[in-house]
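Exam revision sheet. Question 4 asks you to relate a sequence to its structure. Input first:
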Amino acid sequence: MTNRNKLAVLVVTLCALALPFLTNDNRFLAFVVGMTFINVLWATGMNLMYGFVGLIPLMFAGIAGIAAYAMVYFTRTLEWSFWLAMPVATLLAAIVGVALGLPALRLKGFYFALCSLVIQSVLTLAFIFFPTFTNGDTGINQILPPDWFGGQLSLSSLEIVIAILAVSGVLLCAWLVRTDLGKRFIAVREDDILAESIGIKVVRTKIIGFFIVSVYAGVGGCFYAAYTGFISPRTFDVLVSLNIWLFVAFGGRGTILGPIIGTAILAPLPYLLQDIQAFKEIISGTLIIVVALAMPAGIYGAYLAARSRKPNRSMEARMQEQRV
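Answer key, structure tokens:
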């Protein structure tokens, strides 16, 4: 990473961590920022699978739901601390997600997406028809914020924790794609048959990638439940998975900054446009269509393509920029 890119990462990180402090006096904006950070974490996880492994995990929201419901069960029924329940629930969701997705991970492209869509539908039905654990379609409310030294974290403090979590998730993804594992992810994305021929265990690589992505989903699901205080089957249905995928595609898959840009633009729209509910879907849909037609690689992808066409730029500089 060049010094310029390191400086850019530092500036973006500091700005992200400053946002909860800047919006603390306006609870509505603070809530929008908190939800955006949760979606940044989710979009980063989705991008790891969709952008670098080349598969669209449409059961993403279902895995987040498993972690959220498990966390609530552990904290309410077993009276565990949130900080113990969250990692255990995340690990449980990741294991269940890999177990359910294992047959689909042997598939490619559209077939994997279709199979994962079926799994997501089954998980949504499970959330509805097992009311003993999920309270069915009514959902679970009054979920308490995480405990902290005998008390509870305030919403403003929880927003800072979520911001740190989102930044850490992005930095982890940026580091991971530069490792040997990340290179195997990209090789599988580009041509899994060729990757297999040079000794890469394609299915094993997909399983590892899917497990990591499931951890992103699970952590985000636990903090979503703790932050909003309410979860229901609709909180983790297929539309949520599609929205997260859309954030990645809109910003630019296969890059680190692209999903952040897509999430920062699209995630706040349902909240900021709630006063013009009749036009909200029209505005959002128009924006998405324009970008999809004019910039099929996403906003950041189009920016990188335009930069690469500029003359007098070395190949090394272009490669360094692509890694961001």
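Marking note for examiners. The chain has one domain: 3-236.
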